[in-house]
Amino acid sequence: MASVASTTAPAVLLLDTEGHIISANATAAAMLGQPHETLAGQSLISLLHFEFLTDDPAMMAIQWEALCSTAGSRPQSIRTRASTRLYHLRLDSIAKEPAQWFATLLPTTESNVDDIPSHPLQDALILLANRSALGFFDLRLDTNEITTSAGWKRMLGYTEHELPDTLASWRRFVHPDDTAAAPDQITKRQPPGARPFANEYRLRHRAGNYLWVTCVGVRVFSPEGALQRVCGLHLDVTERKELEEISLIGDERFQRLASQGALAAFDLDFAQGQHWFSAAWHRLLGTNAGDEAALPDPAPFSAALPAPLRAAGLAAFFKPAHPDTQEGRQLVALTSAKGETVQVLIGFQSDVTRRGELVRVTGYALPIDGICATPGSTPPALQTAAFDALAESVIITDAQVKVVSINAKAATLTGVPARDAVGRPLAAVFSLVDRRTGQPAIEAVELALNQPSNRLCDLHALSPRDHQSPPCPVVWTVHECRSPEGALSGFVVIFRNPEEMRLSPEELVQANRSESLGLLAGGIAHDFNNLLTTILGGVSTAKENRDFNQLPAAEEACLAAKQLTRQLLSFAKGGGTHATRQVINIGDTLQNAVRIAASGSPVVVKVETADDITPVEVDKGQMLQVIQNLVINAIQAMPVPSDGRIVVRAENIDLTDNEVQELPAGRYARIDVQDNGAGIPPDILAQIFDPFFTTKKTGTGLGLATVDSIVRRHGGRIGVESTPGTGTLFSIFLPAAAKPMQAESRRSPAIRFGTGRVLLMDDDPKICELTGAMIASLDYTHDTARNGDEALQLYRRYHNVNRPYDAVLLDLTVIGGMGGEECFKKLQAFDPEVRAIITSGYDDEDMVKRFLEMGCCGYLTKPYRVGDLGRMLKSVLGR
What we know:
The chain is an alpha+beta fold. 32% of the residues lie in helices and 27% in strands. The protein contains 25 helices and 34 strands. Strand 12 and strand 13 form a beta hairpin. Helix 16 (505-545) crosses helix 20 (703-713), helix 17 (551-573) packs across helix 19 (620-636) and helix 22 (788-800) packs parallel to helix 23. The longest helix is centred in the middle third of the chain and has 41 residues, at 505-545. It is extended. The relative contact order is 0.04.
């Protein structure tokens, strides 16, 4: 066999990505038959001999690509165009962006390189060493030399020619904590010969991180017992080590939760007949913990279930709510070994055969008594108390229409205690009879469950449990509940004895107010946008064009928006049983009510008030509600809104006894709301003031009932006249006030200058900047705080050095910090002489009164002008 010649120095070339020579040594020039100075820039393909010779650039590019794919994996035999001699050509990639190649040419002594003798596995080993994920190494400890494969260097982020082959370079890659595990570290002498080894340690990657590697190889010991040579391979196992670490951490966490914590875990393996319960399960239910060994039956679970669920069997309990999933969750009241009830959330994952037989169930039971699911949520105990406090009877079922919860009111009406109802079919608890015939109405519930709409039904009664008492009439409805994915979760049945369906006057007023606010929301938004258009237009004209002529209009729009919010707050708040009544001019209230009620409507609404209208003593919020209800009804009665006309009129009238039914003689203010709408049919005119009577598809029947209730509580009466096709007239009679209207104090002129130090607290940076400029323009000095804590700190600091603040402006609401009310109380405790002014966007007379009674010196409603602020500071400081 021939051998490879090694007496000639190799030809070395550096090539670019297209195979053009960048540089080469003199040997390369001689082998290629070219002057050395002309090699740079030539294509290597043009200097090599192929069966198909060409000068076509496209064909040469194909030949270069083929050469890269073959000579890049193993040396190739090739001839140059300058000679018939056979050479060994090898290509190694040394850079990727841009690609560069390192080429070597070695002459051979035979014409066929395939005849070179080699081990049968030599090619395979070379391929593994250079192209696989394995990193081969050979350490010569006697000569301090090292040989590493291209794959080894690539594993650590280096190219084949970047690292020096020295033992020192090898050792600097080993992690400092793992040096003892490195294969070249043997402290004791060993018998001579070769011994295999395997261990794991970390090597430093070029990026700076460490890789976990498995090292397998052979150590060779000299006749003296010293380590002479180490041959082996490395395999990157970082991902496996990370997964092992995650697994160990996860197992530790589970043990902390299930053994030491409150997560009562269980694993019921019906196929193997082994059932495991965690220590937390045994602690929760007071059973014998033992050593958490597997049990032959699931008795600890079955025994804890309520009787109806236990009788139905575990297969029914662990049946998923949806056929496409094998998981489920249920709130269950378990019974401990001591007979105590434990409320838990059970979550599980089940494996079921095609025939519905349980194979295995893993899950947990989490006690929920006294805890909240999320911050700010209600503890289950409070939820249960609130559930039982409902005036309506409520039954909740699962997707199989079995009762999972029933409140106290429902248990009373049905005669079935909650402990007996849970787990039973709905029809067995909510047992109905036809109110007209007395016959069982078994199909009524089933029909209601299958109907898409939540229709209210009043044709049935609950069957008495003792079979002696008369059936209890009920009005009931069913609501279908679905998960976010659309799967059926269960049903909610709501019912009530119709004899109890009577609203108190306060309930009537509040329910109607909520309905009216929803109707008015769109119109109010329309008016606000109009006002904001005026404001923004005036500000932008002044800012961009230096034209200040529109600023007065913008200011008026700001004040109008402020007044609109005040009216809206007054309406939303209304008045309760302890509402404050005051003597007012009813004309102002009519204007305010119409402003809100007619927002966004094309109907023309006109207000006419007699100049000498008599004052009345009323709750302004409730009277706003009365007028707004009547105006809203009139607007909704218009067949063509753009043609609608409504007149709201107020005048004095002197009545004789019973001239208006049930009213004594005397002076009254008469308020008429007249429209040109469709009118009210005569056959229903007498019913329009009855609660819940309505002819609207989406109405509640509370509007006119509320109006009648409020007017009567003010000692007045309301009447109605209507002609179909012509319109309707509502007339309200309110008794004249027995005392005169309080005269409004004249507003003092704006104070432009003052002296003193002011502390301003507000969490809005823009308001701080603007109000600070206002204070400075009034010649007061000021400091700014972002919340109550900062305000307290500043106030105490300057008070302790005898430089107290003369006044403190406190924003009532601070997001995420101490607000004005709490800050004032702490300031007052520190300095009883503190002079505080509350600033707030809530324009409410009752709130103003409350803070003044607490000891505040003033209440300034946002938005405010420089003059408003100046007058307030002047009144508080007196200077």
